[in-house]
Design a protein that fits this description.
Layout lengths: L2 H4 L7 E3 L5 E2 L14 E3 L4 E2 L16 E6 L5 E4 L1 H7 L11 E5 L5 E5 L1
Antiparallel strand pairs: 1-2, 1-3, 4-8, 5-6, 5-7, 7-8
Length: 112
C-alpha cells in the first residue's frame, strides 16, 4: 500500500513496511527510513472495564496509562500517577500505552 492509498482511509497513523516505525503525521514517506511503503494502523481499544480510580486511588477522567511501575508490576494509571509511579516516561512496546476516553465511552489507544 502506498501513502496515497493510506490517505483515503481513517486510521490511527502509519506504520512503515520497511523499518516498522510508527508515525502520526501524513507524510509522503517514513520519517525514519524514507520508505514510501506504509500502511494504516487500525484503532486499538482497551477491552477491560475501567473503574472510577486507578491502581493508586487517583480519580480517572479522560486519559489512562497501562505501564510498568518503578516497583515492577504493571498498573492502570492516571496522568498524575504515571508521572510519579511509572518506570519510564517513554511509551511503546514493553514500556506502556496511553488511552483516551472517546465520546462513546470506549478507551482508544493513542500512544505506545
Amino acid at each position: 500500500m502506498t501513502v496515497g492509498d493510506v490517505l483515503k482511509h481513517k486510521h490511527q497513523g502509519y506504520r512503515c513496511g520497511m523499518c516498522e516505525h510508527e508515525f502520526a503525521k501524513d507524510s509522503a514517506s517514513c520519517p525514519k527510513c524514507g520508505s514510501t511503503e506504509v500502511e494504516p494502523i487500525q484503532p486499538v481499544y482497551w477491552l477491560s472495564p475501567v473503574g472510577d480510580v486507578d491502581d493508586f486511588g487517583d480519580k480517572i477522567t479522560d486519559t489512562i496509562y497501562d505501564a510498568p511501575t518503578r516497583g515492577g508490576p504493571w498498573a492502570l494509571m492516571t496522568q498524575q500517577s504515571w508521572a510519579v509511579h511509572a518506570r519510564s516516561m517513554k511509551l511503546g512496546t514493553g514500556m506502556g500505552q496511553r488511552f483516551r476516553k472517546q465520546k462513546d465511552g470506549k478507551w482508544l489507544k493513542v500512544e505506545g
